[in-house]
Please model this.
Amino acid sequence: MKLICFSDLHAHKFKDFAKIDEVTGNSRLTNILNCLDQIREYAVNNGIRHILFGGDLFHVRGSVDTVTFNATFKKVKSFSDAGLKTLMIVGNHDQYSSETYPEHSLEAFKELPNVVVLDRFTPHKLGDSGEYVFPVPYSSDINLIKDKIKEYKGKVMSENISKAILLGHIGISGASVGKSSYVMQDAFSLDDLYPDVFKFGVFGH
Model:
């Protein structure tokens, strides 16, 4: 199975270096949304039917601009209209608060056909070829996340799942991020993610 994976879109009307345009009123937001067009077109043109998104669809936590929300919703709907199945997890910027299971700005996307918002620790079977996605939405409760990943490990091993994909919004120590390749020092180590158990990992933060 072929997948497209991406994360941290951070849709927002950023003011720095932005110009007024006729699409969204903000050239940087328009450019961000154009990335979704490129992803959709690449998927359709290359016979890819599954999209994995690793969280932080929006940038401003708890207060998403109306134009930003509506324009982003329409772009994700275009994935659905094109027959693409999109799995999304919730990032910290999508959440209203720091509760264990807070309200989040992806709730409305659950109403779209072919879009699955994974805001709980519930595995999702992708298709008929045996791929399972094990979601790790953002939580400030580090121990909870580690316990859930350990539970996932047990399920993968006990059920002999050979195509297990870990999809998470977490910081991983040692990972290089940004244009300067900054090396993160964060709450999760590579060992916490059981790379010998999961076939593939997709992470954002």
